[in-house]
Task: structure prediction
Amino acid sequence: MKKIITILILFFILFFGSIYFIKYNVENNTSLFYKYKRMMPKSLKTDIRNFLTKLNNIYIYNIEEFEFEKRTSNNLSNIDFEQKEIILYTNSKLIFTGPRAYLSSNEKNFFLITGTGIMMHLPIVDLLSKNDKLGFEKIETNIEEFTSNYKTGLSTYSQTSFIKNLFIKDNQMFVSLVIKENDACFKHSILSGEINLDKINFEEFLTINECRIFYSNYVGGNLIDYKDNKLLYTIGDWSICEDLRWLANGKEFCRKNNAQNMNSFLGKIYEIDLKTKELKIISIGHDNPQGILYDKDNDIIFSTEHGPMGGDELNMNVNPTTSDIKNYGYPISSYGEHYGYPNEEVMFKYEEAPFYKSHEDYGFVEPIDYFVPSIGISDLTLVKDKLYVTSLGANIDEGDLSLYEYELSSDHKKINSKKRYKIYERIRDIHQIDEYLVLFLETTGTIAIYKPSMTE
Result:
């Protein structure tokens, strides 16, 4: 009887919780909200998210129009933003459809793809109109042909996060994702298709022919335009030195397959020739490089990189070339620690991945900024002499849930100043359109449009 009562209580929590989240949304993302969220047992949070995700997915794929409503109460505003213009549009149906979403645009249209592969678009003139609503229209695609295997053998959350990036060049759309060939083979892949607002038929553009035995979020997967008709592509290290599931392969597995190994695709940044599809290494020694941009005026690659337990990095590659491959140190050097530190049970990891607290002393490139504890560093963009870096995470007191603004020197090789704006939401992606920054806030399924001041 007691077990039945417990099940009924859990059902009512999940049911009414789903109504609250999906219909009314969580607009008040304050530190108090996150304080109580952290008090909830992890297993219960996982059960609630899985339930709500399944409930949401029952009808989300049949929706043809996605309407984002302007938020009347701007709870993101704090002392840093009081004099700045930031407009929020929310569609709470997207909270559990990913919850990731990635943004891109061409000359006329703004595009959004969810972590589950739902594609939608909106004219840019409507996006920036400051109207009360944003009416996105769904674009039919054949992405499910490449992702149908995710419906079996994985957690509900993993089934909703296989899309890793969206990028547009000319009239071609590129989707970065992780494909699942079977229960023990996951691969990095890129799809491409000609843009059509009614339906886009994607084809395989490139697949990294290395199997990973389980799904991981430490995969990178970002794409950005580069010089000489090439793209830049980030590949994470798949938690090769952290996830205990790799131990079945022996304690030398990390050393033989980590980001320092030139025979492994893991932990690298590549250039891809759009014509030949040839990959060449630009840099090595990365943990999970999520954000990347190319400053063509100064010939600099900026990238953001998740560290292990602490040690998120902002990196810079000046005058990048495949003939002089830069090494950023991971897993030899890192300002973070192995998960579980200082527990004796994880100390063996330091034999293969010592995490020295210097990069330069060991011949590696030092990050231009790093974060201990980690902030869940995500994407970045450059507006004139200001670099904007976003973060995920869940703890506002540790620097998470924020937008960072770096003022750079005239040659963009040094940081003159740094500011932090508390957003109180997980920022998955940031995209620049003219003088506007467009952010996807995945905590509430919100698009934020922000026009930074260039006179400060």
